[in-house]
Automatic annotation (TrEMBL):
Stretches assigned to coiled coil: 45-96
Name recorded for this polypeptide: Oxidoreductase, putative
Swiss-Prot/TrEMBL keywords: Coiled coil
Record has Coiled coil as a keyword: yes
Gene Ontology, cellular component aspect: cytoplasm
Superkingdom as given in the UniProt entry: Bacteria
Signal peptide coordinates: none
Domain FAD dependent oxidoreductase: 2-332
Pfam families in UniProt: DAO
Length: 355
């Protein structure tokens, strides 16, 4: 087994991943049910919960401290018109056996220094350091005998007609013969294979300087909201605060980058509105393209022009959880020849018509 990485391990979107580890995503499960059916989404939700448990187990197994911490989440209504849909989402999650509470305006105000009309309070989500996690997994794999090639860009691939194996070539003269290939290169995978269900926006994040006192933040919950685009916030192991959102539809990098300072200041302003007792200072801030799917589910791509290959497209706002879930399915398919969950996420969505 071998891993080739075009750049440095953990670079690209990994190093800018804000790593809110949640099962809920940008599209409410009740909306996904309308598209895919209740049984389909019930299975999806179960797999997401398993993936979070598996991420935690991996963090406990590797040698490096990945700063994994279980956190609860507050998903709040951004306006009164969103309360009804939030209540329906809560009812669905409760029906599925999730540990959730529905908080009234009064309950929110008891716990937090800001007010919202209503919120879903979810137990057992998490946060971690994705850069450390990636390096820890690579280190673990290397110790198990996996060959790791960093700064090694693939520049060709074809199928040997006699053996059916995929031959990958890379800069520096490296050639790899593989029975199966997994393209898990994040958004750069779209450069290899265009996928019609993937779309991109521009997003912005700020990481503050360390905060001396976080007691004002109830349980240091992950915070996000129903508005689109939405704001999200979390704390870190070294008492910083990550604030993100204010997504922009611009497809042009120059336009996106020109807005960074304004978006940084706006994110800080929004945080101070919610937590007026503390004034935070930005230390790191960035902007990047952010990929999602049109129907709200991640994708395992299998294409005729790429035989014996899988494209892992864990795109979406909880892409780390998606990626864990999809990688397990792909590994099971390769190992046993059949994963019962594969069809849930294939690019052609074969089960959609079988609600």
């Amino acid at each position: 087994m071998a891993v080739i990485e075009k750049g440095k391990i953990g670079s690209g979107s990994t190093s800018s991943n804000t790593a809110l580890i949640q099962y809920s995503g940008e599209k409410m499960f009740t909306n996904l049910v309308n598209t895919f059916g209740k049984m389909y989404i019930s299975m999806h939700l179960e797999l997401l919960q398993e993936a979070i448990n598996e991420i935690e187990a991996a963090c406990r197994t590797v040698d490096l401290n990945c700063e994994f911490q279980r956190r609860d989440s507050l998903y709040s209504a951004s306006c009164s018109e969103d309360v009804e849909s939030l209540r329906k989402e809560y009812d669905f999650l409760k029906e599925q056996g999730l540990k959730v509470d529905f908080l009234s305006k009064e309950k929110i105000e008891e716990k937090y220094p800001f007010s919202r009309e209503a919120a879903i309070y979810s137990y057992g989500d998490g946060e971690m350091n994705p850069f450390k996690f990636t390096h820890a997994l690579i280190d673990y794999a290397a110790k198990k005998g996996v060959q790791i090639f960093e700064n090694t860009e693939m520049n060709g691939h074809h199928v040997d007609p006699q053996t059916g194996r995929v031959i990958l070539s890379a800069k520096g003269g490296l050639s790899i013969s593989a029975g199966k290939v997994i393209f898990a290169c994040g958004y750069e995978g779209i450069d290899l294979k265009k996928e019609k269900q993937v779309s991109f926006v521009s997003t912005y994040t700020v990481t503050t300087k360390p905060v001396a006192d976080l007691t004002f933040w109830y349980n240091q919950t992950l915070l996000w909201e129903t508005a689109r685009p939405y704001l999200y916030m979390r704390t870190t192991a070294d008492n910083r605060i990550i604030i993100g959102g204010l997504d922009d539809n611009t497809p042009y990098p120059e336009d996106r980058d020109s807005k960074l300072v304004h978006k940084r200041d706006k994110l800080i302003e929004e945080f101070n509105k919610m937590f007026p007792s503390i004034q935070v200072e930005p230390e790191y801030y960035l902007t990047a393209f952010y990929g999602g799917t049109t129907d709200g589910l991640p994708i395992i791509g299998k294409y005729e022009e790429y035989p014996n290959s899988y494209f892992l497209m864990g795109f979406g706002d909880n892409g780390t959880v998606y990626s864990q879930m999809l990688s397990k399915i792909i590994a099971e398919e390769i190992r046993t020849g059949n994963s019962p969950d594969l069809e849930l996420y294939l690019n052609d969505r074969p089960l959609v018509a079988k609600k």
